[in-house]
Amino acid sequence: SESLTVAELAKKIYREPSEIIKKLFLLGVMATINQVLDKDAIELIAGEYGVEVEEEIKIDTTDLEVYFTEDSAENLVERPSVVTIMGHVDHGKTTLLDSIRNTKVTEGEAGGITQHIGAYQVVENGKKITFLDTPGHAAFTTMRQRGAKITDITILVVAADDGVMPQTVEAINHAKAAEVPIIVAVNKMDKEAANADRVMQELTEHGLVSEAWGGDTIFVPLSAKTGEGIDNLLEMILLVGEVEEYKANPNRKAVGTVIEAQLDKGRGSVATLLVQNGTLKIGDPIVVGHTHGRVRAMVNDKGRRVKEAGPSTPVEITGLSDVPQAGDRFVVFDDEKTARQVGEARSQQALVAHRGEKSIVSLETLFEQL
Ligand code: GTP
Ligand code: MG
User: Fold this and answer.
1) Is the CB of 89 under 6 A from ligand 1?
2) Quick check: pTM over 0.90?
3) Where is the Tr-type G domain (predicted)?
4) Which-ligand-closest: CA of 86?
């Protein structure tokens, strides 16, 4: 057909009508939801989303990114910040992650046995914060490779007795490239040789100027070992969250990213997912990377079974037909049939790509042998 209404077009390209109306407005076209769009307007919008318009609108429904749609402002509510910890070897990343988890879990959720699922949540001043318990560098590498944004805030750990080191600089560059705000945790302040001023001085050379020195970078002196200063760090994370206003729509089908996954002897494929938008529920038909299934069971970071998981929540699920990879996207579908179709198409594509690589390799080997 040569014309579509805004609502029909929105449905065809998996967007909300309000998003289309907004896009049209920015392109200088005033439209309402039931307005019939002519071919030019349709092509304008399709162009914005990289969708092909021929006879029919063609959208690659096997590309999971197309389901990561924007929500209209009225459906958005505040969500917890997602935080990654980065820094040089031995500067205390693991100790800090453990220390935050231990202090907060014993305070707030007595009896909860923490289990390692690659991410955890703590509560500070009644607000949740999500920490990715995976090496920060790995998370950023995956993000850059796939263009998937996972983390909102980076905590840059710098040991006060060692100062800025090569991987400190690397971490700064990763965070800058991804446009993720940095909070500096000046760690090991309990040590005699600790010198916070030196850390501040050295970081100035990399564009991180402390607020005390007229810049806009938050520095928190702390000790991951004694716990001193950790509450302050959590408060600063909440502050950045308030300024940046991280939001999501809990009333839609879940989309997000795989934090980690493995094959478990008893439970089969087990994947930790970070829900980035929407709410994930037991029984949801889901496509995860190149695999699919139905969410059979969900366990949170405290080892408790849960029935649903909202935005910024990490949750471990079972029920997938295969093991996905860290960094893979996941999308929940309306019905099992669609999830199966998309999942099978994706697994087929992966298989073909894999065979392609293999045949090239064997051809090269063949020539070498000649
Ligand atoms: P990698 O994972 O190897 O890169 O190291 P990391 O950054 O995770 O450092 P880790 O937490 O393993 O800490 C390295 C060493 O520093 C350990 O011996 C910790 O006990 C010690 N450490 C960490 N934080 C502190 C601190 O605040 N004070 C003191 N005194 N020691 C600390
Ligand atoms: Mg470590």
Assistant:
1) yes
2) no
3) 78-247
4) 1
- The structure tokens listed for 153 are 């805030």
Can you name the residues that pair with 287 across neighbouring β-strands?
Answer: 292, 331
CA of 89 from ligand 2 middle (Å) equals: 7
For residue 120, give the 3-state DSSP assignment: strand
Residue 266 Cα to ligand 2 middle (Å):
29
- How many angstroms separate the most distant Cα atoms in the chain? 75
DSSP annotation string for 222-271 = --TTT-TTHHHHHHHHHHHHHHHT-EE-SSSB-EEEEEEEEEETTTEEEE
Ligand 1 atom showing the smallest separation from residue 157 Cα: 7
Please check if 322 is assigned to a binding site: no
pLDDT in tens, 320-366: 999 998 889 999 999 999 999 999 999 998 888 777 665 544 445 44
Distance CA 224, CA 155 (A): 13
228 ligand 1 Cβ < 6 A: no
- CB of 101 closer than 6 angstroms to any ligand 1 atom: no
For residues 350 and 62, give the distance between their C-alpha atoms in angstroms, rounded to a whole number.
Answer: 11
Q: Is 239 in contact with 220 (CB distance < 8 Å)?
A: no
Choice from 86, 93, 95, 168 to test ligand 1 binding pocket (greatest atom count within 8 A of CB): 95
Q: Is 331:64 a contact under the CB 8 Å cutoff?
A: yes
Cα–chain-centroid distance for residue 132? 9
Residue 187 assigned to a binding site: yes
220, 147, 311, 350 alpha-carbon torsion, rounded to 10°:
-140
ipTM of predicted complex = 0.99
Instruction: Check if the beta carbon of residue 238 is closer than 8 Å to that of residue 202.
Output: no
Does any ligand 1 atom lie closer than 6 A to the CB of residue 190?
A: yes
